[in-house]
Amino acid sequence: MRNAKKRTENEKLPELKSTAAVPVFTKRMAAISRSFEKLKKAADGLARQRSYSALLLSDDFRELERSPFATQHGGDFRAFLEFSTKLSAQLHQTSKAASFDAKKFGDLMKELAQNCTRCHEQFRN
Ligand code: HEC
């Protein structure tokens, strides 16, 4: 009997966690925004700098995918995140390729920026 009551109380915990998780998500978003700006600047710069910035960005997105706020969201939200991770990993691959394909890099950056906008339109208020 007492155990059953405890379990009911515990079941309420995820809700509390969800409100606490939002600032973490916001902080990570701000970090993503900084990495994205750095990568934009690195587009015409040194291959090493570009590659490093792209790696940071894909790590940021990968971490965000695992954050409590993100795992509590389903469907579209996760799809946006997963697509962002995929695009930034491709940006990293493109950046470290022996011969740099600036057109491909530009196209990927554009696609990633559109993905930021679409997710914001749908989920940010
Ligand atoms: C999966 C959906 C999603 C994707 C993809 C996404 N964002 Fe966000 N972003 C959000 C949400 C939701 C918020 C609002 C968070 C909040 O209210 O705390 C936000 C907030 C922000 C903020 C404001 C952070 C702050 O300090 O208030 C910036 C800047 C930002 N995003 C930039 C970007 C950039 C740049 C990209 C792409 C490289 C991106 N976001 C991709 C969902 C996303």
Description of the molecule:
It is a single chain. The protein is an all-alpha fold and 125 residues long. The protein has one domain. The protein contains six helices and no strands. Helix 2 runs antiparallel to helix 3 (47-66) and helix 3 (47-66) runs antiparallel to helix 5 (75-96). The chain is elongated and about 45 Å long. The N and C termini lie far apart (43 Å). Heme C binds at residues 22, 25-26, 29-30, 32-33, 36, 77, 80-81, 84, 112, 115-116, 119-120, 123-124. The site of heme C (HEC) has 19 residues, from helix 2, helix 5 and helix 6.
Q: Which helices and strands appear, and what pairs or packs with what?
A:
Layout (H helix, E strand, L loop, with lengths): L1 H10 L1 H30 L4 H20 L1 H5 L2 H22 L5 H22 L2
Helix pairs in contact: 2-3, 3-5, 5-6
Entry keywords:
mainly alpha; binds heme C
- Count the E strands: 0
User: How many alpha or pi helices?
Assistant: 6
Q: Indicate the low-confidence ranges by residue numbers.
A: 1-16
Rg is: 18 Å
Give a quick account of the main beta sheet: strands, pairing sense, barrel closure.
none
Concise synopsis of the structure shown:
This protein has 125 residues and is an all-alpha fold. The protein has helices at 2-11, 13-42, 47-66, 68-72, 75-96, 102-123.
